[in-house]
Design goal:
single chain, 391 residues, alpha/beta, Helicase, Ruva Protein, domain 3, Ubiquitin-like (UB roll), seven-stranded mixed sheet
Length: 391
């Protein structure tokens, strides 16, 4: 799974990325500080299943703090997007190429209105413009891919009685689009799949837009909520757009995670408080006192909430544990693995995720909590622990 961070220049994408991954990236107050895409591991936050059995996990990947487990997935930060990117303006061509493999987008929007659409200082810029422009550029990206082959392609589909969904999916295969996605969009659009040559330019744009929304779903990270005009802008944007929108403070989250790493505080991402452990200078204490006020008002910095919503609500993934009766592997490690699986996956899908041979020799699975046996068609549930029995 790959999640891409998108946004206008100076929106705070790189700060969000560093806060989520603690990767060493350049953060600078000027447009296009990010040139090449940065990739790192971010983490969804779940309860440690081992805690339900009085134990603590020993993750092979990710980590555990108290009774909370953090499971990794890949996060990518790309160059800021400017209007006209779909036609190559700014770093548009590279930006869109980098995003092709993403499963979903987190759109980081500067709610303060203190920078304009190009990342330059502004007194009262409306950040809803950024959402509209990003949407348009992503839609035009999809439309451009469709338009490259549409005229000849549409006639060929009609004359040779080819299946339209499979043909379009093949054209978009580099963007993780499959024929089921296309079929769903055709059905939703109400367009005539047997006469694609009759589709108008407006039809094509609507189709591209629907396909983009289905295959690259997006959540809005309403960043810089501590600035004066941010709350007013957020209220207006919530009335205007129907995306999931979560207020956040990427600078505060970065400060907390770095202070935790330096053993100055104990902080669990996504929590509403932290505990001071080390000696702080006056500047550090003042900064943390200010962050504490933010946490009291918003209950968290919002970064972990955005990450979890993206994975578990936008992409509909589940956290599933391979779990034997003793919860340990041959080396005594407790629940060393946790896999993120798509909602709708079965016990057999999980067996194949573990290893092809395990899938091929599947007999049944034993649920670690209920001790009940389940078959290959059992639909996985979030936080399931299963022991796979094989021939």
């Amino acid at each position: 799974m790959l999640v891409g961070l998108v946004g206008r220049p100076n929106s705070g994408k790189s700060t969000f990325f560093k806060a989520a991954t603690l990767a060493d990236v350049l953060i600078a107050p000027y447009p296009f500080a990010t040139i090449k895409p940065n990739r790192g591991m971010a983490y969804v936050k779940i309860r440690d299943l081992a805690a339900d059995f009085g134990k603590k996990s020993n993750p092979r990947e990710g980590y555990v703090k108290k009774d909370i487990r953090f499971v990794p997935f890949e996060l990518m930060d790309v160059a800021g997007l400017v209007e006209g990117a779909s036609k190559g303006k700014g770093l548009g061509n590279e930006f869109l190429s980098d995003l092709a493999g993403a499963d979903a987008f987190i759109h980081v929007v500067d709610m303060s209105g203190e920078t304009d659409g190009e990342g330059k200082p502004s007194e009262n810029y409306y950040p809803g413009n950024d959402i509209t422009i990003i949407e348009k550029e992503l839609d035009l990206w999809y439309l451009g891919i469709l338009n490259k082959i549409w005229k000849v392609f549409a006639r060929t589909v009609e004359m040779q009685k080819q299946k339209l969904a499979e043909a379009i999916a093949k054209q978009f295969s580099g963007l993780k689009v499959n024929s089921d996605d296309v079929k769903a969009v055709i059905l939703k659009s109400g367009l005539n799949s047997e006469k694609p040559a009759s589709w108008t330019e407006d039809n094509l744009f609507s189709f591209a837009q629907l396909l983009r929304k289905m295959t690259k779903p997006m959540i809005i990270a309403a960043n810089k909520m501590d600035r004066p005009n941010a709350k007013e802008n957020l209220e207006r944007i919530r009335e205007e757009f129907d995306y999931k929108i979560v207020p956040c403070f990427s600078e505060a989250e970065l400060a907390l995670r770095e202070a935790d790493r330096a053993n100055l505080i104990e902080y669990i991402p996504g929590e509403s408080n932290f505990e001071i452990k080390g000696q702080l200078n006056l500047k550090q204490k003042a900064a943390l006192d200010q962050i504490k006020l933010t946490l009291e008002e918003y209950k968290s910095t919002g970064i972990q909430e955005i990450i979890n919503k993206t994975v578990f609500e936008i992409l509909n993934y589940l956290a599933i544990f391979p779990a034997g009766s003793k919860l340990e592997d041959s080396k005594g490690n407790v629940l060393p693995d946790c896999f993120l699986m798509k909602s709708g996956s079965t016990a057999l899908d999980f067996a194949f995720r573990l290893h092809t041979d395990i899938g091929n020799n599947f007999i049944k699975a034993i649920h670690v909590k209920t001790k009940m046996a389940v078959g290959r068609d059992y639909k996985l549930k979030h936080m399931d622990g299963l022991e796979i029995m094989i021939k």
